[in-house]
Amino acid sequence: MSAAPMRLEYELSREEFRALSDLSGSRLMSTPYFLNCRPSHMPRPLLTTLLLAVTCLMSDSTLPFAQADDPLVFISAFASGEGGAIHAYRLDPQSGRLTLSEKTGDVEHPFFLALSPDRRFLYSIHADQFGGKASEQVAAYRIVNASGSLELLNRQSTHGTASCYLDVDATGKTVVVANYSTGSVASLPVNDDGSLGEAVSFIQHSGSSVNPQRQTGPNAHCIVVSPDNRFVFAADLGIDKILGYQLDASNSQLTPHRQAFVRMPPGAGPRHLTFHPNGQHVYVINELANSVTHFDYDSEEGFLFERAILSTLPEDFTGESYCADVKITPNGRYLYGTNRGHDSIACYRIAEDGQLTLLDITPSGGKGPQNLAITSDGSLLLCANMPGNNVQLFSIDPDTGSLASAGEPLSITSPSCIMLK
After folding, report:
1. CA–CA dist 349, 127 (Å, integer)
2. Angle between helical axes of 46-58 and 14-24 (0-180°, round to 10)
3. CA distance 148 to 166
4. Which of 6, 26, 58 is the last residue of a domain?
5. Is the pTM of this model over 0.90?
6. Residue 87, in any domain of the structure
7. Please, which residues have CB within 8 angstroms of residue 353's CB and are 6 or more apart in sequence?
């Protein structure tokens, strides 16, 4: 294939690109040409050739990424010693049944997971004492085969404690991490073999807010790379801000953005954020205020503009509850947020202009819904009820967005994060 510049007349979607990447594994999509195609531009006439190549590759029984019919699901068990583990399950979409395929131990308190864009590598928090005095680590794993077996490549310091969120940029060459207890963020370069280099960026947040128990200092709770791979946003619960950074993907460097932050309502406690699939909106779930904030996103400038705030709880609820996670269906029609205390999942319809309408609030099937994941076809939602020690599956009604139990919950110790391969 010629390395000369070529005019691209068609464009594969990110989902199509990832599907091809999943199928073809390291032998095709790790070539320099396709790595340079991100964020998914390539000539559509090559698609037929690609699929033929995939067919040939899939006939090789040694191919590590040959996919079974059932999706692979990684679930972390937030515990120490033998209890701490990363489990790989096969998901039967018809029955909603999760079947254990592999279990990787020797990982302490794997609170959060992230996958590389080509699905060849998995990154996990590793903490001997979560939130202790010593800095924690990010562990890099190679996904060995279709069963979800993991090979530890190395670990690198997060330069913070209670490290609680990871993301990988679109090139697969940068991992970013948020440190809750110490209120900081960092970026780590990824080597060609998927292992991690030492952090090249470290940014300490500062300030406080109005809640005397939870907001006496910075608490970075998530960090997310924008779809265009130019910006990074961190939600800091302790100072009620969404902080913006520019990402130089060539060297994994983070620098403060011109819009250094947007301020949330006092006491909101922003926890997680997610981008709409169309890249034009951002949604933040606020742990302390039990609400979701909708922002419009200017992708050219990387600026956020607040549009609305909606509650995640019933109007007549008077108990104690705290939000945790927020996810959007791949088609961009529905948004889901978790309530820990009320132990439920709030469902919203997303209008064409990004505005939210609360549709329903469904019991989460366990105590303390911590993390959500949605299958690539948008048909199933998985909910990790961490203190409830189970994962509940729900079917998603494509016409209404409503959730219905999709089988018996999976029993697992302290599930904290779900990643679908």
Report:
1. 38
2. 30
3. 19
4. 58
5. no
6. no
7. none
Residue 368, domain member (yes or no): yes
**Cα–Cα distance between 249 and 231 in angstroms, integer?**
10
Q: Is residue 36 part of a domain?
A: yes
DSSP code of residue 313: S
Q: What SS3 state is found at 57?
A: helix
In a domain, 96, yes or no: no
Query: Angle at CA 27, nearest 5°, toward 64 and 113?
Result: 55
Show Cβ contacts of residue 22 under 8 Å, excluding neighbours closer than 6 positions.
Answer: 65, 67, 119, 421
What is the Cα–Cα distance from 409 to 30, expressed in whole angstroms? 37
**113-115 and 356-363: which strand pairing?**
unpaired
Closest CA to 104 of 70, 136, 61, 152: 152
Q: What is the DSSP letter of 5?
A: -
Same domain flag for 167 and 37: no
Same domain flag for 234 and 355: yes
Quick one: DSSP state of residue 311? E
How big is the CA angle at 169 (ends 379 and 293), to the nearest 5 degrees? 60
| Residue 335 and residue 186 share a domain | yes
**Using one digit for the tens of pLDDT, what is the confidence trace for 101-112?**
999 999 999 999
CA 292 to chain centre: 17
Range of the domain at 20: 14-58
Q: How far is CA 189 from CA 136, 173, 177, 221, in A?
A: 17, 6, 12, 21
With beta carbons less than 8 A apart as the criterion, state whether 275 and 282 touch.
Answer: yes
What the block records as the tokens of 222 is 């998530």
Hey, which residues does 39 pair with through a beta bridge?
Answer: none
DSSP code of 26? G
Ramachandran category for residue 75: left, alpha or beta (phi over 0 → left; psi -120 to 50 → alpha): beta
What is the reported pLDDT for 7?
33
Count of structural domains, the chain: 2
Q: Could you say which residues of the chain have pLDDT below 50?
A: 1-68
Please give the pLDDT value at position 31. 36
CA 162 – CA 414 distance, rounded (Å): 16
Residue with tokens 């979409």: 93
Residue 367: which residues within 8 A CB-CB, separation 6 or more? 343, 385, 387, 388
